């Protein structure tokens, strides 16, 4: 599983965040919500009576959603930066205190005196990290968790959709009383998805038995690949191509090169990771694929049909649109 490489629990499923009822929550000139926000998030109630002013985002995906909603001035801290922050968000990011290189401890979280905590990954709420959401609730601090990574898998949606990501963005905007910012961000993201679909080969967006894509995340002796239900599956469906391992039950299964050789994908999509581990960078993957006796004979390797995307764009976040754009724009040239 992908969690071998990062402590963030990666069962990548983008899902609708919570059973939030009622209309959009807005705030008045004094910063009060017009009405309280009540969410059921990953099986726990989350109630917001006033827009948070000292929120903490526990990892980069949550941070970048908040920054994209213009909420830097409402943040008391961020943590767990895995990649350089998106250039357009850098000025806002530099205004937010960094609490820890990885996850902050419970003591560090409490010392920041937050009034809201948000994370994309379950592992952020581990005992050796921020502590459980239930414990934070006892302290009067509502905590939100993306519903593709609920503590109890039964509470989570099981399949990535971009609509699920948009629902999460709307939830966070409701919490802060800025629903109009969510709609603007979603329009921008949807426009980029439409452009990615348009740039792909004809038939994009329809079921396809044509081009097959191997989504290669990391590792060389044991490669970790995109299976069923994650961001790569959602992008493959959008673009009308086939994820080579969509039949795998896990979202990031451990593969083997002999099975990959049997399936002989048309195109290999490489995650470019900045961590510096085995098979993390795109170039290290290409070097390995070309020198390994089994993989060097793959049609995609012989023809150099590689597409490189930032590793973080394969995770459920506002960056996922970038992966769709890169793959869609390169598919024509990489196809047979």
From TrEMBL:
Xref: Gene3D superfamilies: Nitrogenase molybdenum iron protein domain
Pfam families named among the record's database cross-references: Peripla_BP_2
Domain of life: Bacteria
InterPro entries in the cross-refs: ABC_Transporter_SBP, ABC_transptr_periplasmic_BD
Coiled-coil positions: none
Domain Fe/B12 periplasmic-binding: 54-336
Region of interest: Disordered: 188-208
Family (UniProt): Belongs to the bacterial solute-binding protein 8 family.
Protein name according to UniProt: Iron complex transport system substrate-binding protein
Organism the protein comes from: Micromonospora parathelypteridis
